[in-house]
What we know:
The protein is mainly alpha-helical. The chain has one domain (27-44, 53-145). Helices cover 73% and strands 6% of the residues. It has six helices and two strands. Strands 1-2 form a two-stranded antiparallel sheet. A hairpin with a 2-residue loop joins strand 1 (43-48) and strand 2. Helix 1 packs across helix 6 (134-150) and helix 2 runs antiparallel to helix 5 (100-122). The radius of gyration is 16 Å and the shape is globular. The model has no long low-confidence stretch (mean pLDDT 96).
Amino acid sequence: MRTINKLLEEYGENHQHKTNKMIHWICVPLIVFSIIGLLYSIKLPVIIMTHQLNIAFVITTLAMFYYITLSFSLSIGLFVYVTISLFICHLVEKAGIIPLWLFALIIFIGAWIGQFYGHKIEGKKPSFLKDIQFLLIGPAWLMSFIYKKTGISF
């Protein structure tokens, strides 16, 4: 298994252009949120403390185990983001203004359009086309910048 530093370095190779990086700062968190939202919309026939379990909880738990194997420190920051995303999903669903799945789908489509536009500017294909694992590395790559800026080691 490649180390977190090697994975972040490989991911960064396809993300050098200033505009593409800026687009990623917007679109990667939106894509993560939208995927969580879509998965949150799929309910399981299990009730935990008056809340119906959903697929998002299961998948994000598995993702957290993956992140822990790469970097415990980074996994904490990613856990905070995922938790906030799950809470926002809960609020959107509870508000009932728009179905969560539709809200998430609109964000998902828009954010991926942005991502592909960024890679067109970059002149390089998205990293996940080389290795599907990079779909999970994108959020860690952004979190690593936050950690470096705040002096937190990972």
